Amino acid sequence: MFIKRNISKGLIGLLVSTSSHAFYTQSGSIYDSAGNIVKIDGISWSGFQDSKIVQGLASNPFYAVGNFSTNYSKTYGMMDALVRPWDFTDSGVTKANGVAFKTIRLPIQPGVLYDNTGQVDMNRSLANKAEPTRANGIFCKVWETNGSACAQTVTPQEAFWITLEEFKKNNVKVLIDFHHKYGYGDGFRDGTVYSLTQYEADLKLLANEIKARNLTNVIGIDVFNEPHRLFWFRDNADQPAWIKVIATAAKVFKQYNPDVLLFVEGSGPGSGDPDQPVACVKETDLVPNPEAYAISDDPTNCATGTKRVEFKGNWGEDFKPLLDKANAKNGVPSFNRAGFIQQLKTAGLDDATITWLMGDATANKAHLVFSPHVYPREVGTWESAPGKPSELRFNWTWGFLKKAGYPVVLGEASWKSAEGLAFFQKALVPYMIANGMQNDLFFWAVGYLGDTISLIDPNGGAINLQAEKVLHDLFSQTIATGKLNVTFTSPGFPVKGAATLTVKETQQTYSCDITNGCSLDLDSGSYNLLVADSYQIDNTAHLVYQVKASNSPITFKITNGQATDVNVSLQGQQIGTQPATQVSYKVNLLDEKGNPVSTQALTTQLTFTSDVNNQNILTCTTQNGVCSSTIYNQNINSKTGAFSNETYQVGLPNSITFNGKTYSLVADKSARSLTVTGTANQLQLNAVYQTGAVSQQNCNVKFTLQNRWDSGAVFQGSITNTSTNAAIKSFTFKISFNGSEISNPTIVSYWIGSNQTYSMNGGVFTFSANTYDPYNGLPPGQQQGIGFQVSGAMTKDPTVTVISCEAK
């Protein structure tokens, strides 16, 4: 079946969706702004709390590899495996046994919000400059100038925001999980919450950035993961009451981003909170299960015919202190909503914020989701038996909150072996189905896990087909079996990037590559396709085009089991030229006394790298010390066609050898960046190099010979932050040796900081590292110890020449 419709349509890069996705809760469910119930159908993707990026990309691609050659054998990427695995035959998944995950829980450590140093670790062979949006190309920051490989990956901070954007393009909602305190690695997951003052600042940053970036797919914030050293309503040693943490999050998001939900886990070790009520259960309802709960006589608190029951709980599962104490003694598990609200008031919340969080008297238009973690014995060391024991445990531990009108979404649940799977299927799933919760779960997880399975093997990319089928059966997803294939016809001028398509009836938006087109899965029915106006730059001809949109949508029909083809004919007109800035950059040389040296016949290379996409790199070769170049502004607003200022970073060599002398960069006298405006402009810039000088930018390096023998030596030294107003977090320095003192020098070992690297080229040794404290950095005026061991034939005590030091 083939349908073709022509529209006047436009596009540039990634367009912004206009649909609203404000979320709220009522009647035990989550709703979007259109009043539709939101099914979580979720999974966690580990990484930003441990390894600075979602795990698995060191071996696998994020998206399917494009048309470039690699040694990777699978046709799909990890994102593809989560949202459309049946489109790839080698996945082993079909629509009859697979899952399209609708929500991803993204664990982070808060430091990633600020970590703009270093590079994330990914398989760079799965990225190619010719197809920057395929495979791992989205995480490449700088491409090789004369090649196709990724020369530099993005920082963890950049990777985090890019990942959220990519989820949005795939119509995947996100729950951002504060998984543990500052620091990468599971060792920082100790059940404590860090400073509430810093936590509040982190939440403000996150709330504002989500709104500023229009990340309408962020459904909520997991307030804090498994705070097992906190009590619900009382401080515990150096840890605040859990209610204070919840109140802090509510205050921030009510003020700065009220469309986002708060997901709240249970606090404490699972039982034993000092405010835990006495639970009395009818003897006729009790089935002994000493592994999960203890039964005892308590005639003082429990009436005749009832027994006192002490229920266990996993980390993150204990909500028993929220029970109404009087009802609990009478055998009824119910939410003490009034008492919880009073605790929020005591924690400092005003009435408006409490109403935003808790909703009205019937819990309508609330923004609170309770999110327990439930694991089998092989993970949590114990479990409840299927049937009545598990039903009792869940009812008294967190099920009563669902009955009070608040959503309960399992934040983590999984297994490792057949034994754990049996608990999941026989104890947990029946309860979820019986209570209308079968779509309210985040499976744990994708990543390097150890104590549970990973849905996708982070090393090889294989999908766990058993887990896919189990979750397919639980979620009972209706997966669209009709397909819409969208292609584009060129308007007669170069058009590239991705168009944002909106299906009017579902309000779902899709990012569709203009060059390759795209395929959308839809159920049978009649639909209307919308595409927005935009503006496009032709970077070759340096022209600006307006690509017009149609006044009416494209109408098409979908039949299950069949494909419908729609061709979008792009039309537009030239409206102007790309603003150009004429740059004249002069390299000045000075002798030892600071006198000018003639630059006649001086040739060197400079680079100009755009901050807009970090990929537009221009190389300029000086003639007689002067580089002349035309730089075109790329920073166009795709909606209005207006140009904003665009900053370029100037790449200067740290040293220049000219007429037998080495000249070092004088950083504070050299222009390291330039701004291209939205109108035609001219710039004259300068760099200064001086012989006998050491290039220093925010740091100073010194070395002293500590020990020497015939074939080696050890140098100890320090790096000092010479900045007057900011800490440094990463640095690079270069050194060389005197060839008359040591022959064939080789670095044997070195100790300069974290994430350290070194390389040698032409007798110059380049060392790079982060400071030992990667979050606070090295304060102004402070030093950090560094050193190295070098081998080589030595005729005398060797000396080290420091060529340059640069720090950020």
UniProtKB/TrEMBL annotation:
<protein>
    <recommendedName>
        <fullName>cellulase</fullName>
        <ecNumber>3.2.1.4</ecNumber>
    </recommendedName>
</protein>
<keyword id="KW-0119">Carbohydrate metabolism</keyword>
<keyword id="KW-0136">Cellulose degradation</keyword>
<keyword id="KW-0624">Polysaccharide degradation</keyword>
<feature type="domain" description="CBM2">
    <location>
        <begin position="699"/>
        <end position="805"/>
    </location>
</feature>
<feature type="signal peptide">
    <location>
        <begin position="1"/>
        <end position="22"/>
    </location>
</feature>
<dbReference type="InterPro" id="IPR008965">
    <property type="entry name" value="CBM2/CBM3_carb-bd_dom_sf"/>
</dbReference>
<keyword id="KW-0326">Glycosidase</keyword>
<dbReference type="InterPro" id="IPR017853">
    <property type="entry name" value="GH"/>
</dbReference>
<dbReference type="InterPro" id="IPR018087">
    <property type="entry name" value="Glyco_hydro_5_CS"/>
</dbReference>
<dbReference type="GO" id="GO:0030245">
    <property type="term" value="P:cellulose catabolic process"/>
</dbReference>
<keyword id="KW-0378">Hydrolase</keyword>
<dbReference type="InterPro" id="IPR001919">
    <property type="entry name" value="CBD2"/>
</dbReference>
<dbReference type="GO" id="GO:0030247">
    <property type="term" value="F:polysaccharide binding"/>
</dbReference>
<dbReference type="Pfam" id="PF00553">
    <property type="entry name" value="CBM_2"/>
</dbReference>
<dbReference type="InterPro" id="IPR012291">
    <property type="entry name" value="CBM2_carb-bd_dom_sf"/>
</dbReference>
<dbReference type="GO" id="GO:0008810">
    <property type="term" value="F:cellulase activity"/>
</dbReference>
<keyword id="KW-0732">Signal</keyword>
